Write the structure tokens for this entry.
Amino acid sequence: MAMSPVRVNSKPDFLIIGAQKEGTTSLFSWLTQHVDVIGPRTKELHFFDRRWVDSKVGGYWAEFPTRLRMNAAARVRRRTVVTGEATPYYLFHPLVPQRVHSVLPEVKLIVVLRDPVQRAISHYWHEVNHGREPLSLEDALAAEPDLIAPDLERVARGQEPSRLLPANSYVARGRYAEQLDRWGARFSPSQMLILSFADLVSQPLSVDRKTLEFIGVDPDASPAPKFQTQNAGSRKPTRPETVEWLKEQFAVPNRQLAEHYGVVF
């Protein structure tokens, strides 16, 4: 009896690791519109955070195109063909850098950073619009430290945090320097591309081209992608005093980000 061919999947060449509410959905959409970028079954695989079991990594590879398909496409086109995924929670999750490095030490990492004040506000309204946040913005910001403290303690012990950590980390997720430091301890600077959300909005073609070059495909091999707003939701104006409070919270983290990574908002 004839045996079925063995399915050998490709490993991802790149990961868009974050951050949430910073245009990662748009960027991933643009990249996968390129003829030489073959995406996974779904955008956010969450393998290295919610689904992590190192013995089950074969299930992660199965989310990507087969190696046979990738090699055949590369031969026909006579160009590099790549695959990858985008899970914005990877940047913030403290345990993910080590996990990624253990199985993908050569992977290319893409980060999009947004003014953390606006990111926090956008994150809050994202939770409100999904029916997960009953508090006012001000009350939610005040409640954040106590809500996420138990999860941070779990992470310090090497344990998986609950769903409260990604949902309620409005301020914590905007402290970018400490998150990038965790990734920088495992990966070389040449493996990381840090992009600006402001540039993504104002210069989408330039950002798209820069990213395609970073992941190793010819930016001229495919027509320019169509750009459109992703994941927009309703929101109300923010009180000026709340904006000022947020600015104070991010003053030191933003200074560290500028000094260590050259990113200025």
